[in-house]
Fold this sequence. Notes:
The chain has helices at 74-81, 85-92, 95-100, 137-145, 149-157, and strands at 2-10, 16-20, 25-39, 44-52, 58-67, 104-105, 110-113, 123-136, 161-163, 173-182. By secondary structure, it is an alpha+beta fold. The chain is elongated. The structure holds zinc ion. Zinc ion (ZN) binds next to loops.
Amino acid sequence: MKRIRWEVRCLSPLPVFRYCKKCGEKTEYVCSGRFRINAQRKSLDIWLIYKCRRCEATWNAAVYSRISPQSLDTELLDRFSANDSALAQQYAMDSRFLHQNGAKTKEPSYEIIGEDLSSGAAAEVKIWSRYPLPLRVSAIVRGKLGISREEYDRRVSEGRISGAAGEDLQKCRLGQKITLIFS
Ligand SMILES: [Zn+2]
Protein backbone atom coordinates (compact mmCIF):
# COMPACT_ATOMS: atom_id res chain seq x y z
CA MET A 1 0.00 0.00 0.00
CA LYS A 2 1.15 3.47 -0.81
CA ARG A 3 2.44 5.46 2.18
CA ILE A 4 1.93 9.18 2.41
CA ARG A 5 2.76 11.78 5.07
CA TRP A 6 0.78 14.94 5.63
CA GLU A 7 2.20 17.61 7.86
CA VAL A 8 -0.17 20.05 9.53
CA ARG A 9 1.70 23.33 9.66
CA CYS A 10 0.31 26.23 11.65
CA LEU A 11 0.22 29.63 10.03
CA SER A 12 -0.26 31.43 13.35
CA PRO A 13 0.31 30.77 17.06
CA LEU A 14 -2.66 29.51 19.05
CA PRO A 15 -5.10 32.39 19.52
CA VAL A 16 -5.43 32.82 23.30
CA PHE A 17 -8.44 34.38 25.06
CA ARG A 18 -8.95 35.34 28.68
CA TYR A 19 -10.66 37.96 30.79
CA CYS A 20 -8.74 41.24 30.90
CA LYS A 21 -9.38 43.19 34.11
CA LYS A 22 -8.38 46.46 32.50
CA CYS A 23 -10.61 46.01 29.45
CA GLY A 24 -13.41 44.52 31.58
CA GLU A 25 -14.08 41.71 29.12
CA LYS A 26 -12.60 38.68 27.48
CA THR A 27 -9.93 39.68 24.99
CA GLU A 28 -7.26 38.07 22.87
CA TYR A 29 -3.81 37.78 24.37
CA VAL A 30 -0.65 37.71 22.32
CA CYS A 31 2.53 35.89 23.30
CA SER A 32 5.38 38.33 23.91
CA GLY A 33 7.98 35.64 23.30
CA ARG A 34 9.57 36.51 26.65
CA PHE A 35 9.88 34.56 29.86
CA ARG A 36 9.98 35.97 33.36
CA ILE A 37 12.09 34.17 35.90
CA ASN A 38 12.01 34.62 39.62
CA ALA A 39 14.86 32.68 41.16
CA GLN A 40 15.42 32.43 44.85
CA ARG A 41 17.67 30.16 46.76
CA LYS A 42 15.03 27.53 47.39
CA SER A 43 12.40 28.11 44.76
CA LEU A 44 12.17 29.00 41.14
CA ASP A 45 9.22 30.40 39.17
CA ILE A 46 9.08 30.77 35.40
CA TRP A 47 6.29 32.39 33.41
CA LEU A 48 5.65 33.04 29.74
CA ILE A 49 4.43 36.60 29.28
CA TYR A 50 1.33 37.42 27.25
CA LYS A 51 -0.14 40.83 26.49
CA CYS A 52 -3.72 41.87 25.96
CA ARG A 53 -3.97 42.75 22.28
CA ARG A 54 -6.08 45.79 23.08
CA CYS A 55 -4.59 47.41 26.19
CA GLU A 56 -1.22 45.63 26.48
CA ALA A 57 -1.93 44.55 30.08
CA THR A 58 0.41 41.67 30.79
CA TRP A 59 -0.55 38.20 31.89
CA ASN A 60 1.96 35.65 33.08
CA ALA A 61 1.27 32.04 32.21
CA ALA A 62 2.99 29.81 34.76
CA VAL A 63 5.52 27.43 33.22
CA TYR A 64 7.04 26.33 36.54
CA SER A 65 5.83 27.30 39.99
CA ARG A 66 7.95 27.00 43.11
CA ILE A 67 10.15 24.23 41.93
CA SER A 68 13.59 23.50 43.28
CA PRO A 69 16.22 25.41 41.23
CA GLN A 70 18.24 22.19 41.05
CA SER A 71 15.44 20.34 39.28
CA LEU A 72 16.01 22.17 35.98
CA ASP A 73 19.18 21.56 34.05
CA THR A 74 21.36 24.59 33.44
CA GLU A 75 21.04 24.40 29.70
CA LEU A 76 17.25 24.61 29.85
CA LEU A 77 17.40 27.42 32.40
CA ASP A 78 19.72 29.32 30.06
CA ARG A 79 17.18 28.97 27.26
CA PHE A 80 14.48 30.46 29.47
CA SER A 81 16.86 33.31 30.48
CA ALA A 82 17.70 34.01 26.84
CA ASN A 83 14.01 34.03 25.80
CA ASP A 84 14.77 31.23 23.38
CA SER A 85 12.23 31.69 20.61
CA ALA A 86 11.79 27.95 19.86
CA LEU A 87 11.09 27.33 23.53
CA ALA A 88 8.57 30.19 23.72
CA GLN A 89 6.92 28.86 20.55
CA GLN A 90 6.69 25.38 22.05
CA TYR A 91 4.68 26.75 25.00
CA ALA A 92 2.65 29.16 22.87
CA MET A 93 1.52 26.19 20.74
CA ASP A 94 0.66 24.00 23.73
CA SER A 95 -3.09 24.16 24.31
CA ARG A 96 -2.86 22.00 27.44
CA PHE A 97 -0.36 24.39 29.01
CA LEU A 98 -2.60 27.35 28.19
CA HIS A 99 -5.75 25.63 29.45
CA GLN A 100 -4.00 24.70 32.69
CA ASN A 101 -3.34 28.42 33.08
CA GLY A 102 -7.04 29.20 32.73
CA ALA A 103 -6.94 30.59 29.19
CA LYS A 104 -9.11 29.51 26.31
CA THR A 105 -7.63 28.82 22.91
CA LYS A 106 -9.03 28.78 19.42
CA GLU A 107 -7.85 26.75 16.48
CA PRO A 108 -4.92 28.29 14.66
CA SER A 109 -5.06 28.69 10.92
CA TYR A 110 -3.09 25.92 9.27
CA GLU A 111 -2.11 24.34 5.99
CA ILE A 112 -1.55 20.70 5.13
CA ILE A 113 1.69 19.91 3.36
CA GLY A 114 1.96 16.61 1.52
CA GLU A 115 1.07 14.62 -1.52
CA ASP A 116 -2.55 14.74 -2.64
CA LEU A 117 -4.52 11.54 -2.67
CA SER A 118 -6.54 10.83 -5.76
CA SER A 119 -10.12 9.84 -5.15
CA GLY A 120 -10.53 6.18 -4.33
CA ALA A 121 -6.78 5.50 -4.12
CA ALA A 122 -5.64 3.09 -1.40
CA ALA A 123 -3.01 4.49 0.94
CA GLU A 124 -1.74 4.65 4.47
CA VAL A 125 -1.63 8.30 5.44
CA LYS A 126 0.32 9.51 8.46
CA ILE A 127 -0.82 12.94 9.60
CA TRP A 128 1.49 14.69 12.03
CA SER A 129 2.15 18.03 13.60
CA ARG A 130 5.22 19.37 15.37
CA TYR A 131 2.97 20.60 18.20
CA PRO A 132 0.01 18.75 19.71
CA LEU A 133 -3.05 20.40 18.17
CA PRO A 134 -6.69 19.85 19.12
CA LEU A 135 -7.77 19.94 15.46
CA ARG A 136 -10.52 17.64 14.26
CA VAL A 137 -9.14 14.91 12.04
CA SER A 138 -12.36 15.12 9.99
CA ALA A 139 -11.68 18.79 9.18
CA ILE A 140 -8.08 18.06 8.17
CA VAL A 141 -9.07 15.21 5.86
CA ARG A 142 -12.02 17.07 4.34
CA GLY A 143 -9.81 20.10 3.75
CA LYS A 144 -7.08 18.07 2.09
CA LEU A 145 -9.41 15.96 -0.06
CA GLY A 146 -11.82 18.81 -0.76
CA ILE A 147 -14.86 16.73 0.16
CA SER A 148 -18.07 17.62 1.99
CA ARG A 149 -19.03 16.54 5.49
CA GLU A 150 -21.59 14.12 3.99
CA GLU A 151 -19.05 12.57 1.66
CA TYR A 152 -16.55 12.21 4.53
CA ASP A 153 -19.18 10.59 6.78
CA ARG A 154 -20.15 8.20 4.00
CA ARG A 155 -16.57 7.09 3.36
CA VAL A 156 -15.96 6.60 7.10
CA SER A 157 -19.15 4.58 7.60
CA GLU A 158 -18.31 2.43 4.56
CA GLY A 159 -14.86 1.81 6.03
CA ARG A 160 -13.10 3.52 3.12
CA ILE A 161 -11.40 5.84 5.61
CA SER A 162 -10.46 4.33 8.95
CA GLY A 163 -8.07 4.94 11.83
CA ALA A 164 -5.19 2.45 12.00
CA ALA A 165 -5.80 2.16 15.76
CA GLY A 166 -9.60 2.11 15.47
CA GLU A 167 -10.08 5.79 16.32
CA ASP A 168 -13.55 7.34 16.07
CA LEU A 169 -13.01 9.46 12.97
CA GLN A 170 -16.13 11.54 13.52
CA LYS A 171 -14.88 12.89 16.82
CA CYS A 172 -11.18 12.35 17.17
CA ARG A 173 -8.69 15.16 17.25
CA LEU A 174 -5.17 15.13 15.91
CA GLY A 175 -2.97 15.72 18.93
CA GLN A 176 0.44 15.10 17.43
CA LYS A 177 -0.15 12.27 14.97
CA ILE A 178 -2.58 9.75 13.60
CA THR A 179 -2.42 7.09 10.91
CA LEU A 180 -5.37 6.66 8.57
CA ILE A 181 -6.08 3.92 6.08
CA PHE A 182 -7.75 4.90 2.83
CA SER A 183 -9.14 2.01 0.80
ZN1 LIG B 1 -6.96 44.54 28.02
